[in-house]
What we know:
Elements: E1 2-13, E2 16-27, E3 31-35, H1 42-49, E4 57-62, H2 69-72, E5 75-78, H3 90-100, H4 105-118, H5 134-146, E6 152-156, H6 164-179, E7 183-187, H7 191-197, E8 200-205, E9 208-214, H8 215-221, E10 226-232, E11 241-247, E12 250-255, H9 261-270, E13 274-280, H10 285-294
Parallel strand pairs: 3-7, 3-8, 5-6, 6-7
Antiparallel strand pairs: 1-2, 1-4, 8-9, 10-12, 10-13, 11-12
Helix pairs in contact: 3-4, 3-5
Amino acid sequence: MTAISLRGVRKSFDSLVAVDDVSLDVERGEVFGLLGPNGAGKTTMIRMIMDIIRPDAGRIEIFGQQLTERVKEQIGYLPEERGLYTRQKVLSVLEYFARLKGATPTRARQSALTWLERLGLMEMKDKKVGELSKGNQQKVQLVATLVGDPEILILDEPFTGLDPVNTRMVSTVIREQAAAGKTVLLSTHQMALVETLCERVFMIHRGRRVLYGHLDEIKRRYSDNAVLVRAAVDYRRCPLIARAVPENGTMRVYLNDDVRPRDFLAWMLQVGAEVESFERATTPLEDIFIKVVQAGEGETDERPEG
């Protein structure tokens, strides 16, 4: 089931076109990556999905419905900049956010305490938000997003200020939410986390779509003609390769443009090499991100996603 749908959405601010004819679908139960450099239009897209601002053209639907107040109650939003009441106590702030989503006082307190325990914040429940470290404030902000039990989570840079342990904890929570059927729209510049959490991504640059689809397919499309090999062989003897570079106990072998990986494998078997492992190399998402941005308009292929 489609949770978030945008069709032909456009938004301008005076002469600046912030979002230009964007269409995408985010499915229920998935973690969907929203990518783009600073100023690309991500925040404008999120604010239109949240109905904070209205599009000039196009249509936005949540679970097939227009953005009514009742529909918007199903969305939890973690903004890039913290939106907490720093002079208030943590538990009081979280109870307030849960009540805003329609929870009873009893249910609001129960949900807040459950999430504080889950994220290791229970001992801080009676402290003022402003007294916490930046990392713990970020976790409280995440709890404020979760405490109302929304069906859709829109998370804008949720890992800001987190150390590796807490980054892993938050990543686990995101996976658990998706496994429970919740929809997660994740906007972040941390490409390694996108690769571990998301199956599909959308990248916007200068207000327009430049990448959209399954991450594996995008990585294949942008991959170099290279393979990762662990084998006892003299690569210098092979006329099929451009160069071979050691990489984490294997060799990254760059093939000539007209050479297929199976041709190189056949050559190794022909010369009697003992091949322990052989796989096609993919390009890290961070490299693809930089390549597309540096290319200006980048990939603007409007084919349906694979």
